[in-house]
Amino acid sequence: MKLVVVAAGLTQPSSTRLLADRLAEATSGLLPEPPEVRVVELRELAVDVANAFVTGFPNTRLREVIEAVTAADGLIAVTPIFSGSYSGLFKSFFDVIDPTALAGKPVLLAATGGTARHSLALEHALRPLFSYLRAVVVPTAVYAAAEDWGGGGDPFTDGLGERIARAAGELADLLARRAPEPREGTRADGRQVEDLEDLEDVVPFEQQLAALRPPTA
Q: Helix crossing, 15-30 with 160-177: angle to 10°?
């Protein structure tokens, strides 16, 4: 199982990357088998994303990242909040991805910001974006303000760990129940189709039509 984490933090170290790592760790710990986790730092791809807009084609490095994101079994997307919405780099990256490529993919959304006042950006900005992309977004979105990293015993700010655990549990549940799509040349039970005898349970179309005809007198 492959889990890709997209982090749009602009600094190093970054609270956005820290939140992304905690979400990935929490999700991995709840799955029956540890997934293959890949973290994508968008700040390293900023020039590539801009060039893709100008030329209309992603270069080799960006194309490889896009393929990893679209082929993943699950996605964690984390962005800093600027002016009440996701960052321009975050939006630009998902703009260069085919709008149908994330259809049906389980996604956990998260964001960071300087104040808790921007937490609603998850609902009025990020969730509509991924709904448009037809991704399956988990119910719990995680927002971490600057004070959430304090850990001073305040129940109103120490709930970050609980929110991470709840969101990770929802994503892990979707991933655990996500059945792989059957490959071409395989039966529904996963066995390879080797000859026509494997198709004996398929009723020919002509036989189905004959069964619908009224009996002759």
A: 50
* Phi, psi (deg, nearest 5) at residue 151: 65, 40
- Cα dihedral 86→88→91→94 (10° resolution): -140
Residue with tokens 């927002």: 143
Residues 6+ positions from 202 with CB-CB distance below 8 Å: none
Element (H, E) at 62: helix 60-71
Bridge partner residues of 36 (DSSP): 2
Q: Please, which residues bridge with residue 4 across strands? A: 38, 75
pLDDT value, residue 147: 80
Q: What phi and psi, each to the nearest 5 degrees, are found at residue 206?
A: -60, -40
Write the pLDDT tens digit of every residue in 103-117: 999 999 999 998 888
Full-model pTM: 0.79
Name the helix (H) or strand (E) containing 16.
Answer: helix 15-30
CB 163 within 8 A of CB 140: yes
Find all residues with CB under 8 Å of 156, minimum gap 6, and list them: none
Spatial separation of the C-alpha atoms in residues 129 and 135, rounded to whole Å: 9
CATH topology of domain 2-177: Rossmann fold (3.40.50)
The position carrying tokens 């001073």 is: 152
Q: How far apart are CA 139 and CA 170, in angstroms?
A: 8
